[in-house]
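Design a sequence for this backbone.
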């Protein structure tokens, strides 16, 4: 280990930040680790926010500890004792507002708004993303990114009425499914022709369309939202096709903005989309400054360019990799994960290993979309790029090894026991 690192500051107390801090300790770093987090909570897991927290399933009312996450056992990443054992200088309700890389100082606004400078020898940027908000001040229009957001939506579910979900990406689709599970009337509005259009083959999108409809969701596809109406509180959502949908509650899931504004002018290079430009080791353009999780953008040799992943598993794995590289000095390791993402909707698990786009070549190698149970190989330019599974966890995971190295489309089909069509 290098002897120059005494103070490491990790900014962002989410999944990536916690894993970075843990991995620093696991690798023997015994200096000071300061973990700065804008939220009042200890690090927690976001996937249950659109699932268990909204349905109430899997919550354990006794699962919280004093002062945090009461009733939300599903959100806990670690037991309190395990977090305490990391001996972190944890600063909740504290927001990084600027970075001076020459002086090696992060400017942090504390809970009372007072700004202080935190000196570092090593810095890890893990401030993730926030939900994109629609342009309206009406009450009853929500987004879903934080525990506080989810609690507000769950409380609003309690009043019943009609929910309009804007956007059928994974967050919107899961909110619609959870709302149906607790008996809300739901309209799901999506500008694209099928749900999850950015990632999946239209045939899979059609399965999801049917699932929503069979579960009683009023699905409006191929039409965007033009505005929200109401007197102080939302009453109606206007759609681009000229129609309007009555709403007592709206949840908007239209993607994220990356929390990197505090880095502007610091010398840490940002990409045009606001992500942090990293090298293969998750290092930024400034020495001893790394970036991890949703906001990191880095070159991945198996995907022919740069990638940025909004995946829970990636936030964990990249935190571990960056901690290793920050401490390793010369012995750094490139970060070349197999991307992994899952979504749960109507008790069905969708899993994507690798990457997927609707333009991919698709071969269903087990089951079929009609069975609503399948494993599909995804390919591009003669190479295997992803594996998509529905209700087929063990079979899907079996193909992970093929994505750990370059695998041709033909090799992948052969591994699945499929003879390629000539
Ligand atoms: C509702 C929901 C459901 C999801 N479901 C799934 C799923 O099923 N499967 C899956 O693979 N992924 C899922 N994800 C995605 C996954 O949760 C994210 O990829 C992961 O949380 C990213 O972790 P992160 O640490 O990079 O960022 P974040 O989780 O965004 O954490 C960043 C933290 O930094 C804090 N912060 C921001 N700015 C500052 C600042 N200036 N100073 C200090 N702190 C700051 C934020 O408040 C936040 O606590 C879901 C996400 C959401 C929102």
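Sequence:
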């Amino acid at each position: 280990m290098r002897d120059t690192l005494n103070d490491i500051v990790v900014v962002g107390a989410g999944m990536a930040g916690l894993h970075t801090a843990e991995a620093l300790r696991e690798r023997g770093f015994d200096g000071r680790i300061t973990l700065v987090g804008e939220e009042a909570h200890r690090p927690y897991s976001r996937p249950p926010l659109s699932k268990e927290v909204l349905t109430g399933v899997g919550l354990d009312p006794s699962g919280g500890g004093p002062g945090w996450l009461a009733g939300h056992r599903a959100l806990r990443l670690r037991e309190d004792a395990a977090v305490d054992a990391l001996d972190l200088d944890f600063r909740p309700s504290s927001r990084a507002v600027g970075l001076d890389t020459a002086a090696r100082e992060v400017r942090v606004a504390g809970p009372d708004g007072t700004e202080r400078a935190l000196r570092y020898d090593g810095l890890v940027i893990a401030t993730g993303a926030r939900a994109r908000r629609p342009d309206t001040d009406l009450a009853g229009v929500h987004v879903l990114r934080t525990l506080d957001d989810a609690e507000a939506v769950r409380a609003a579910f309690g009043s019943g009425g009609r929910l309009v979900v804007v956007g059928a990406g994974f967050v919107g689709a899961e909110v619609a499914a959870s709302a149906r599970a607790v008996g809300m009337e739901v309209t799901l509005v999506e500008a694209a022709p099928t749900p999850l259009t950015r990632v999946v083959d239209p045939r899979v999108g059609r399965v999801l369309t049917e699932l929503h409809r069979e579960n009683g969701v009023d699905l409006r596809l191929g039409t965007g939202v033009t505005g929200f109406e109401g007197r102080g509180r939302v009453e109606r959502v206007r759609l681009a096709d000229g129609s309007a949908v009555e709403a007592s509650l709206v949840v908007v899931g239209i993607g994220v903005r990356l929390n990197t504004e505090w880095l502007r002018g610091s010398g840490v290079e940002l990409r045009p989309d606001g992500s942090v430009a990293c090298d293969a080791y998750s290092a930024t353009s400034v020495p001893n400054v790394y970036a991890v999780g949703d906001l990191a953008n880095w070159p991945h040799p198996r995907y022919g360019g740069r990638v940025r992943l909004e995946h829970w598993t990636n936030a964990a794995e990249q935190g571990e990799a960056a901690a290793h590289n920050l401490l390793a000095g010369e012995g750094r390791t490139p970060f070349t994960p197999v991307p992994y993402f899952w979504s749960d909707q109507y008790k069905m698990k969708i899993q994507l290993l690798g990457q997927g786009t609707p333009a991919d070549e698709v071969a269903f190698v087990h089951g079929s979309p009609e069975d609503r149970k399948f494993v599909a190989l995804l390919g591009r330019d003669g190479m295997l790029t992803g594996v998509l599974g529905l209700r087929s966890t063990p079979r899907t995971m079996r193909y992970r090894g093929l994505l750990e190295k370059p695998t041709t489309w033909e090799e992948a089909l052969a591994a699945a026991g499929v003879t390629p069509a000539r």
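Residues 11-17, 36-39, 46-47, 49-50, 95-96, 126-129, 144-145, 171, 259, 262, 293-294, 310-313, 315, 341-343 surround flavin-adenine dinucleotide (CB under 6 Å).
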